[in-house]
Design brief:
Elements (H helix, E strand, L loop, with lengths): L2 H13 L5 H8 L3 H7 L5 E5 L3 H8 L4 E7 L4 E7 L3 E4 L2 E4 L7 E3 L4 E11 L2 E10 L4 E6 L10 H14 L4
Antiparallel strand pairs: 1-7, 2-3, 2-9, 4-5, 5-6, 7-8, 8-9
Length: about 170
């Protein structure tokens, strides 16, 4: 990306930090990773993809969260506990027979982003698993309490995980 394009993207994200990442990526013909990295520095930290399994294991202890898969054709949302998983046969396997389960290509994860930003008038916090192509595999959002505020216990876990995987510079 040209430095002028990057500066323009950073300015856009500073003015619109709550913009839908995938929409900005499509509109500007950049990767979602580039959009995340263009957010103001105080809103994002990026760790390496080698932390995929450790991050997923930690998230499996958070309780009810919302996991989102955003494609060009659909936005899938799952609200509930993310199951624990294990690596086997080339996948990170989510080990439960019902609810959220499946097989994740963990080796394609090139980054684990921790994002805290305003979205639709409220603060949000999510972990984005970024693939080798700069796309977002999926996002896991910190849950909300009965007042729609971020759950304090999960936000603390989110920040602790970020400190381990993507320490602030």
């Amino acid at each position: 990306m040209l430095s002028t394009d990057l500066a323009d993207l950073k300015a856009h994200m500073a003015d619109n930090p709550g913009a839908v990442i995938e929409d900005v990526a499509r509109e500007r013909n950049v990767t979602p990773r580039a959009v995340i990295e263009a957010l103001p520095a105080a809103m994002v930290r990026m760790g390496g993809g080698e932390h995929f399994a450790a991050a997923m294991q930690d998230i499996s202890e958070w309780g009810e969260v919302t996991l989102i898969v955003h494609t060009d054709d659909a936005i899938f949302e799952f609200t509930g506990a993310v199951p624990a998983g294990e690596i086997g046969r080339g996948y990170f396997n989510l080990m439960q027979p019902k609810g959220l389960h499946g097989h994740l290509r963990h080796e394609r994860c090139a980054g684990v982003a921790f994002v805290e930003r305003p979205f639709m008038g409220k603060m949000s916090a999510f972990v984005a698993f970024v693939n080798a192509d700069g796309g977002i595999m999926f996002k896991v959002f910190v849950g909300r309490d009965e007042t729609r505020a971020l759950r304090a216990d999960q936000l603390a876990r989110f920040r602790q995980l970020a400190d381990r995987i993507a320490p602030a510079l």
